[in-house]
Amino acid sequence: MTSSRHRWVVVVVFFLFMLLHQSDKFLIGPLTTPIMETFQISESQMGAVSTGALLVGAILYPVWGYLYDRYARVKLLALASLIWGLTTSLNASAPNYLTFLATRASTGIDDSSYPGLHSIIADYFGPQVRGKIYGLLQLTGPLGYLIGMVLALVLGGIIGWRNVYYITGGLGVLLAAVIFVSVREPQRGRSEPELAQLAEIGVYKFDMDTAKGLFRKPTLLLLFVQGFFGVFPWQVIVYWIFRYLETERGYTSDEILLTMSTVILILSAGYFIGGAAGDAAFRRTPRGRMVVSSIAVLLGAIFFFFALNTPVENRLMFFVFLSATAIFMPFSAPNVISSVYDITLPEVRSTALAIQLFIENAGAAAAPLLAGIIAEHYDLKTAFLVICVSTWLLCTIFYSVGAYLVPRDITILRAQMRERAEQEQAGQP
């Protein structure tokens, strides 16, 4: 099998891993009621179940990032898939609430394992096309949500929530073996333009001084700050949009399901379109990804504002504006990952992305609560306007400043890559 063919095998395997992993992760929502009935627990106790997994996942992002940059990433990713399978199966067999709470928290261990996967992709695909690949892989989030919902609604009532989790846990174990056997560990930096044509390149692994240098990159620091605020709209919409449709716009359950299923499919397309647009713009100018992200979040804010202010009785226009919001919402996601890798050395890319995701998860924790407080005093429409629209406008500024800063950081990385290429050609270590 040629290297070119193998990298697409890697994409397929990683897509399946992320799709099924996301499906498993999102099962907890539609299975909430039967789980609460099994253990006779309250809403607050059930809330603690999800919070525990989120906290474990957030805390372990830096740990996974370091491990991926220090050791073989493919083996670690296979281990993460195995942990997913085993912890999910343990969670399904929990005899009481406290055991369920503890085992559910343990499922967060593998939730922070994606930085290594993205780092592997960066070593199979060059900077000019990474956005499309990341956009394709991030389709697994919304598609996984839909699959998880279908699995829960179709199988949950027939075989019970425990057996649904046994199925997804078994898939995690199976995929661990598939990853271990079918994916080859690429050399770090192999796809960089300066190193791609060399027959042999050196082995580059995590270095603390290089990792500390991440915090001296202006563009990266800006992306970290943007990441904290940028997830606010996502979390608020995910947690509250169903209730908003039901209580403030008068949608029935069937209407909500039809509307949101369609919107989620439209949102899915936005990941790939956004990544492709970022790649195309990046080929024209190093500012391209930031420019695309800036325009996208601004358009998202505008369309969401119009959607919220559409009269309740005009459901068609509301759906049009909500769909337009959905297509632009994910544009920046693949471009942020690609931008992180556009300015960081290969041996610290997992660490850099892990820090980015850790900060994003830290920001995510406060958003639903803040929206709930605003909704109690006013309404959910006001909460959406205050949090989502204002945050997207703020992110427009962040990305615009990033477009100004990023060429310098890209130039520095390209110079470092050329220096390495010259050392390799000269036979130096």
- Terminal-residue CA separation: 30 Å
Averaging pLDDT over every residue, what do you get? Answer: 89
Largest β sheet strand count, sense and barrel closure = none
Strand content: under 5%
Question: CATH top level of the largest domain?
Answer: Mainly Alpha
Low-confidence stretches: none
- How many structural domains does the protein architecture include? 2
* DSSP E strands, number: 0
- Count of DSSP-assigned helices: 18
Order of helices and strands: HHHHHHHHHHHHHHHHHH
Task: Calculate Rg over CA atoms.
Answer: 22 Å
CATH homologous superfamily classification of the largest domain? MFS general substrate transporter like domains
CATH architecture of the largest domain: Up-down Bundle
CATH topology of the largest domain: Growth Hormone, Chain: A
Find the structural class using helix and strand composition.
mainly alpha
Instruction: State the shape.
Output: globular
Residue share in helix: over 70%
Could you state the oligomeric state of the chains shown? single chain
Any overview of this molecule?
The chain is mainly alpha-helical. It has two domains: 3-182, Growth Hormone, Chain: A; 208-425, Growth Hormone, Chain: A, CATH 1.20.1250.20. The protein is built from 18 helices and no strands. Helix 1 runs antiparallel to helix 9 and helix 6 (114-124) crosses helix 17. The longest helix has 46 residues, at 380-425. The chain is globular and about 70 Å long. The mean pLDDT is 89.
